[in-house]
Structure to design on (474 residues):
């Protein structure tokens, strides 16, 4: 068969990549053609995404891919969730999209409760309560940027926004829309009841498009600027976790996935939402997946902790890399320090060293001083949280879990993989690293008719990339 060339854009919270997939009918090969920074910009008291620069880099990636590979059969974009851009009546962007770690949403959950109970919101959406969710960002915009909300005619989540600039078509892709806490989990449509009770503008929301459908082709303007042919742009699982789960070759119904990146996303794939008293009590979320699935999971503050520890140590003491952190952990004598990774003090601290030290002191653990002590506190916090979440899933789903399929960049940290196996007592299968890219590619291949099902796509991934096994050590 003709080799199928697909182009996946994978935007993380700190960097983005343009990766080309070559599919020969049996295996997928990946090649990175462009990598770029995704550095938020602090202006005044707010944190913004450098949206125009990101779109510029997206176009550079497309140009490089076309120049090297010739014909591109399809394009797909996945990014982080919850953040958005607003367009006016002339489709001009109003203001710059604000970062989910911005503090403007503080107190917005309490404000929402004045109009609608949290229990009612969870019954409708099935989404974990976090103040960074889109619904609280919109409430904050309504309070602090009312002129922008009044002028807004279109809301596009970040991948929707980039897709619009490529194609001129406006949609809200399902998997990302589900994270807003404004989508009805059962009907997969915007909840008019919720949105109107919160007095938010309903008309700015767009038609929902499912993963595996073609959004449109590159506009003539983009084609002319980049000197490329008309290429279909596909709605993939545009929330990067949805793509990562799509790209995870799960072993069976007794497996959970753990997507390790800036965030740790741990959960199961379900055919329907799991909305119950227990799921609400444990604050689990029901996010949309590909192929009519639900990602029943828990969001856990992830490698952000170690990324920021590395940054703080490099600024304060000496320049270090992640291998230096792991070496320090292996040499540390006091391995008992532990933090709660989801504590509010670790959401956006100015200095991660101080944040970890303050937490440990306040919780009567003493003060970690050495790099290894600080890092082990983060590792212990993460793996202990993984254990709790797996046990909650077993309780809620009524099934025993045997395997954790870890995917994403975090699996390069072998210490984290082994500790996860040790602490949870479960077998860990690590791989593939590029799960989000591969999930993105699989939905592109399905949209253009190169494969037929998600199951087929996962078999191709398993055939193309190896996994590494970690067993609990006694």
């Amino acid at each position: 068969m003709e080799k199928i060339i697909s182009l996946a854009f994978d935007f993380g919270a700190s960097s983005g990549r343009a990766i080309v997939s070559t599919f020969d009918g049996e295996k997928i090969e990946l090649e990175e053609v462009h990598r770029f920074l995704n550095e938020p910009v602090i202006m005044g008291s707010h944190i913004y995404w450098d949206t125009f620069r990101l779109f510029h880099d997206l176009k550079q990636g497309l140009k490089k891919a076309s120049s090297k590979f010739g014909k591109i059969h399809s394009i797909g974009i996945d990014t982080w969730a919850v953040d958005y851009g607003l367009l006016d009546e002339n489709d001009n962007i109003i203001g710059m999209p604000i970062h989910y770690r911005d503090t403007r949403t503080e107190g917005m959950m309490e404000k929402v409760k004045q109009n609608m109970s949290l229990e009612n919101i969870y019954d409708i959406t099935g989404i974990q309560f976090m103040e960074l969710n889109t619904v609280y960002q919109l409430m904050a915009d309504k309070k602090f940027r009312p002129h922008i909300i009044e002028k807004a005619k279109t809301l596009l989540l970040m991948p929707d926004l980039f897709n619009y600039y490529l194609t001129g078509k406006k949609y809200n892709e399902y998997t990302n829309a589900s994270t807003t806490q404004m989508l009805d989990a059962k009907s997969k449509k915007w909840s008019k009841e919720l949105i109107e009770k919160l007095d938010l503008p309903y008309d700015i929301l767009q038609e929902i498009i499912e993963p595996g459908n073609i959004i449109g082709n590159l506009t003539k303007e983009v084609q002319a600027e980049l000197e490329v042919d008309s290429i279909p742009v596909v709605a993939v699982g545009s929330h990067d976790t949805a793509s990562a789960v799509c790209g995870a070759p799960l072993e069976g119904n007794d497996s959970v996935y753990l997507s390790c990146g800036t965030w740790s996303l741990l959960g199961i794939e379900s055919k329907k939402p799991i909305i119950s008293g227990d799921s609400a009590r444990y604050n689990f979320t029901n996010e949309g997946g590909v192929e009519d699935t639900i990602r029943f999971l828990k969001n856990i503050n992830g490698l952000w902790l170690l990324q920021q520890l590395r940054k703080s140590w490099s600024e304060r003491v000496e320049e270090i890399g992640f291998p230096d952190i792991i070496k320090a952990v292996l040499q540390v004598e006091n391995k008992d320090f532990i933090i709660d990774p989801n504590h509010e003090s670790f959401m956006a601290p100015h200095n991660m060293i101080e944040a970890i030290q303050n937490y440990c002191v306040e919780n009567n653990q003493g003060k970690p001083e050495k790099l290894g002590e600080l890092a082990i506190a983060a590792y212990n916090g993460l793996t202990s949280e993984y254990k709790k979440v797996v046990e909650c899933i077993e309780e809620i789903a009524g099934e025993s879990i045997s395997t954790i399929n870890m995917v994403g960049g975090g699996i390069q940290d072998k210490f984290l993989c082994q500790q996860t196996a040790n602490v949870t007592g479960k077998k860990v299968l690590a791989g593939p690293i590029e799960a989000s890219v591969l999930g993105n590619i699989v939905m592109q291949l399905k949209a253009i008719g190169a494969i037929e099902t998600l199951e087929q796509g996962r078999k191709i991934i398993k055939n193309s990339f190896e996994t590494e096994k970690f067993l609990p050590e006694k």
Q: What stands out?
A: The mean pLDDT is 96. The two ends are 50 Å apart (CA to CA). The chain has 18 helices and 21 strands.
